[in-house]
Amino acid sequence: MDRCKGASVIRNIVNINRKWAFRKGAARPDAWPADWDIVNLPHTWNNIDGQDGENDYWRGTGVYVRPLRRADLPRADVYFLEINGANSSAEVWLNGEKLAAHDGGYSTWRVDLTRHLQEENLLVITVDNAPNDHVYPQVADFTFYGDLYRDVNVICLPATHFDLSYYGGCGLYITPEADGRVQVESWVSGPADGRTRWTRCGSSLSRTTTTPPLWSGG
């Protein structure tokens, strides 16, 4: 939970790493697959064959399934699913409906669940690390592990919030300048009545220092 002392809750972040049903090469299920393996994230299906040096590790589609109850989430106006790493192509399905697809295994991405959440939900994430002609890289000196290898969260937000759909960022862009100035840009989503309210929690939004430490590569 992100909270400033004396301020209202900005967002709740609910981690859902535990108790996913998993199977390699399976069809996407329409109900909870009780006979599948149960795994916790981070997880990879190449933890053994991807390290044996034979370069014959299994590459294909792994399917992750998890029930998601709305009652287990804090009350909010907006809900985002946040996937911090899925290698290398992935799709998100909720209650049999495809909500999103993403190519690229090394970046955070999010899916807006708000209009699709029911009281009881079945969340399915398919992840594919098979060779293809559209995801970079395809040739390297490392294993292209197939996996959900970082945290998966549900982010619960008020109607007006820093935009989490803006290129996978946090809705804030902070640029320090060599003269000590710090520029802060923000992207806000939702009704704001023409205004954006910033709450400062023990530090300023902008600052100027007279002796900024400059990076040197020497």
Strand and helix map with partners:
Blueprint: E1 12-15, E2 20-24, E3 37-39, E4 43-44, E5 61-69, E6 78-83, E7 86-87, E8 89-94, E9 97-103, E10 109-112, E11 120-128, E12 147-148, E13 152-157, E14 161-162, E15 172-176, E16 182-186, E17 188-189
Antiparallel strand pairs: 1-13, 2-3, 2-5, 4-12, 5-11, 6-10, 6-13, 7-12, 8-9, 8-11, 14-17, 15-16
3D architecture notes:
The chain has two domains: 12-159, Sandwich (Jelly Rolls); 162-190, no CATH class. The strands form five sheets. It has a six-stranded antiparallel sheet, with no helix packed on it. It has a four-stranded antiparallel sheet with strand order 1-13-6-10, with no helix packed on it. The protein is built from no helices and 17 strands. With 218 residues, the protein is an all-beta fold. The chain starts with 11 loop residues before the first strand and ends in a 29-residue tail after the last strand. The protein is flat and about 55 Å long.
For the structure shown, list the relevant keywords.
mainly beta, Jelly Rolls, 2 domains, disordered N terminus, six-stranded antiparallel β-sheet, flat
Reading the helices and strands in chain order gives EEEEEEEEEEEEEEEEE
Q: What distance separates the N and C termini?
A: 41 Å
Total strands: the figure is 17
CATH superfamily of the largest domain: Galactose-binding domain-like
Strand order of the largest sheet: 3-2-5-11-8-9
CATH class categorisation of the largest domain: Mainly Beta
CATH topology of the largest domain: Jelly Rolls
Shape: flat
Structural class, from secondary structure content? Answer: mainly beta
Query: Mind telling me which CATH architecture of the largest domain this is?
Result: Sandwich
Return the domain count.
2
Largest sheet: 6 strands, antiparallel
What are the low-pLDDT stretches, counting only 5+ consecutive residues below 50?
3-7
